[in-house]
Amino acid sequence: MKKMEYIRSVLDVFARSPFKPLYLHASKGVETVKILDQAVNAYCTNQPLVEELSHQIDGIEHEADIIKQTIRAQLSSSIMLPVKAEDLLNFLKPQDSIANVAQEAAYMLTLRPCDMPDPIKTNLCELSALTLETVETYEKLVDSLSEILETSFSKREVDESLVLVPTIEEMEHRVDLIEKDLLKEIYSHEEELGAVGVFHLVELVRTIADIADKAEHAADRIRTMILRR
Amino acid sequence: MIELFNPIVVLLVLAGLYMAWNIGANDLANAMGTSVGSGALSIKQVIIVAAVFEFVGAVFFGKKVTSTIAKGIVPIDAIKAIDPNLVAIGMLAAILAAGFWITFATFYNLPVSTTHSIVGAVLGFGIVAVYQDIILLSDINWAVLTKIVGSWLVSPILGAVLAYLIFSVIRVTLLQKAENPYHIEKKFVYLQIGTACFIAFAHGSNDVANAVGPLYAGLNALNLAEATVPIWVLIVGGIGMVIGLATWGYRVIETIGTKITELTPTRGFSAEFATASVVVLHSYSSLPISTTHTLVGSVIGVGLAGGLAAVDLSVIGKIVMSWIITVPIAAFTSALVFVALLGVGL
């Protein structure tokens, strides 16, 4: 039951802003990728940290899920937003995938001990680092939404933010290139790695690269949301 | 002066004070809470500002709407000619009924307006008078009543349109041109102190009538007041509202102020200025309207102009429901109380 208070108020008209939890959700995603990057480095140097880092990611991913659910639950049809609610939910989905995919990648690290030639290790770490950078740039984009709202969609703020979208796309493209090189490299070592080793590494590389893909996808949706409102 | 201690007059004053307390504790607090939410004023400052301007608005600009509540709807002169006591008792029934309904609605957090309650309650008294063949159904001033009810529909919409325009102008000319929007917000903090005064003044000028309209009607019927509202009647209303604000309203302001953080100074200014303008316009036109509903309309207007991160439009349905139920309930309760008071031979 509602708490009995002798109050009649105008508060009902003010709905919770979904934008703050959206930023929080994005930063949870970035956090998982940060830890994933640590885990990849630990994996390549055979440190026993991987299991623990993977657990940490599980926890953060769960927190992100809860935030996502709250945002969805709050957006009933009577809520009026300065953007289309549909567009907002459309970017929430790929944004949520960032943590999901990072979780998957971290889990894969725990499945097999590291056994690969040094050039692959170097490239794998590079892939992970650039993916993290992409996701961090994406976080900046989400953060800039508050500025856009504050000025109520001033052209300058919108332009300043949207500049980040092609940057993210460019970074994602570079991740793609590293991914392709890595796959070639892996197959060129198929004798040493063995079939299971190749399979595991290919999956791992694809999964990590997929994170950057999700960030790019979400950034694209944000652009749509801002321009289409 | 001795006639003022007539028991019915004393009861009218007490019931009026109770109503005024409620208005100060809730409606005035709501109007002022928006200035606290954006950090323009502290709670202490807002109470001082509200007390001064509410009082000034009530005492110097509250006459017109008070006259409408007292004489505009039910032809008290015609009833007075038959029995002056009937008017006084009927008005006592009206203010008691409105007071009951407001108390109930406040406990259940219903967005009910004191204005709608008192108008419905006064109408209830008029309808009983018709049933008792004291006046004709056509004697009730339906034209004025229609205008009043029409203004309830128009005022929130007008608030929304005005707030939309004001915020759009601020947005295009200032926010979108500024190097740093936070500097603009800082400047609007000062302007918001002005609108806080304005909204308190506007509220006082319109809502004092809800508390003292029936008191003035009773005094007028008993020949204790002239054709214009005596200033002491308005002072009673003003004092009651300020006491309501000081003894309970500060809690309501705190609640609202801590929850409305979305309403930055530019948004708050737009909503408050629009609300206060619409309310003062209606006070000038002698029309009693709901300040709270106008404020809700204005906030939606700011939202429509893209100024708010999230606005819950389901509140519109709740407000419309409260319009539809308040008038009949207040009228019916008032009629019952009136018949009961006559029954006990007051």
Radius of gyration of chain A: 20 Å
CATH-level-4 superfamily name of chain A: Phosphate transport system protein phou homolog 2, domain 2
Shape of chain A: elongated
Q: DSSP strand (E) fraction of chain A?
A: under 5%
Can you tell me the CATH architecture of chain A?
A: Up-down Bundle
Q: Give the SSE order of chain A as H and E letters.
A: HHEHHHHH
How many structural units, i.e. domains of chain B? 1
One letter per element, helices H and strands E, the order of chain B comes to HHHHHHHHHHHEH
Helix-and-strand structural type of chain A? mainly alpha
Structural class of chain B: mainly alpha
Short synopsis of the structure:
By secondary structure, chain A is mostly helical.
Describe this structure in words.
The complex is a heterodimer of chains A (229) and B (346). With 229 residues, chain A is mostly helical. Chain A is built from 7 helices and 1 strand; from the N terminus they run H-H-E-H-H-H-H-H. The mean pLDDT of chain A is 93. Chain B is mainly alpha-helical and 346 residues long. In chain B, helix 1 packs antiparallel against helix 8 and helix 6 crosses helix 12. Chain B is elongated. The model of chain B has no long low-confidence stretch (mean pLDDT 93). Classes of the chains: A mainly alpha (229), B mainly alpha (346). At the A-B interface, strand 1 and helix 4 of A face helix 1, helix 5, helix 7, helix 8 and helix 9 of B. Chain A: It holds the Pfam family PhoU_div. Chain A: Belongs to the UPF0111 family. Chain A: InterPro entries: DUF47, PhoU-like_sf, Put_Phosphate_transp_reg. Chain A: It comes from Methanococcoides vulcani.
